[in-house]
Amino acid sequence: MAVILGIDPGSVKTGFGIIEAGAGRPRYVTSGVIRLPPGPLPERLRVLVAGITELVELHAPSELAIEQVFMARSAGSALKLGQARGAAIVPCVTAGMQVSEYSARQIKQAVVGTGAADKVQVQHMVKTLLKLPGTPQEDAADALAAALCHVHTQAGLIALAGASAVRRRRVR
């Protein structure tokens, strides 16, 4: 059974979600938000690295699904987001995890069925797909959605590989 860590990176708060995936429906493990302190970016990044490191040590995920950088309100915001993504990725690759990156549109498409979904729709579908008793916080829901997107994408790739292997055998 694969343990997947989903991350919705941010320079003020970073959402995380952990699910187990194997045969059948993915199972919820935990989720939440790492709130970064006000102040200089290097200190916020230190807190982020410590938080992700603690999650990795506690839950031992084998795979990371993380949202790609998109052009935010300004180039400065995009640079800070990129630095937060890097800080979140480093503890994961240090632990030997496989890293997969998905655009916000891919994540929404995989979970909601449309790449133009809003935050409320993502929260609702994450709650439904994981059979959660309550609605997760926005950033946690986005992180869980990234993990679910990874599960769906991997399942699709495996099915595609299996289908092409069957086709090749028949041709020979």
UniProtKB/TrEMBL annotation:
Record note on cofactor: Binds 2 Mg(2+) ion per subunit.
Subcellular location: Cytoplasm
Record's keyword annotation contains DNA repair: yes
UniProt cross-references to SUPFAM superfamilies, sorted A to Z: Ribonuclease H-like
UniProt-listed Enzyme Commission number(s): 3.1.21.10
Catalytic residues in the record: 8, 67, 139
Residues reported in the UniProt entry to bind Mg(2+) 1: 8, 139
Residues reported to bind Mg(2+) 2: 67
Catalytic activity reported: Endonucleolytic cleavage at a junction such as a reciprocal single-stranded crossover between two homologous DNA duplexes (Holliday junction)
GO cellular component: cytoplasm; Holliday junction resolvase complex
Alphabetical GO biological process terms: DNA recombination; DNA repair
Cofactor: Mg(2+)
GO molecular function, one term: DNA binding
Domain of life of the source: Bacteria
Keywords of this entry: Cytoplasm, DNA damage, DNA recombination, DNA repair, DNA-binding, Endonuclease, Hydrolase, Magnesium, Metal-binding, Nuclease
InterPro entries named in the record: RNaseH-like_sf (IPR012337), RNaseH_sf (IPR036397), X-over_junc_endoDNase_Mg_BS (IPR020563), X-over_junc_endoDNase_RuvC (IPR002176)
Main location: cytoplasm
Subunit structure: Homodimer which binds Holliday junction (HJ) DNA. The HJ becomes 2-fold symmetrical on binding to RuvC with unstacked arms; it has a different conformation from HJ DNA in complex with RuvA. In the full resolvosome a probable DNA-RuvA(4)-RuvB(12)-RuvC(2) complex forms which resolves the HJ.
Function: The RuvA-RuvB-RuvC complex processes Holliday junction (HJ) DNA during genetic recombination and DNA repair. Endonuclease that resolves HJ intermediates. Cleaves cruciform DNA by making single-stranded nicks across the HJ at symmetrical positions within the homologous arms, yielding a 5'-phosphate and a 3'-hydroxyl group; requires a central core of homology in the junction. The consensus cleavage sequence is 5'-(A/T)TT(C/G)-3'. Cleavage occurs on the 3'-side of the TT dinucleotide at the point of strand exchange.
PANTHER family: CROSSOVER JUNCTION ENDODEOXYRIBONUCLEASE RUVC
Similarity remark: Belongs to the RuvC family.
HAMAP family referenced in this protein's UniProt entry, alphabetically: RuvC
Protein name, per record: Crossover junction endodeoxyribonuclease RuvC
Native source species: Pseudohaliea rubra DSM 19751
Gene this chain is encoded by: ruvC
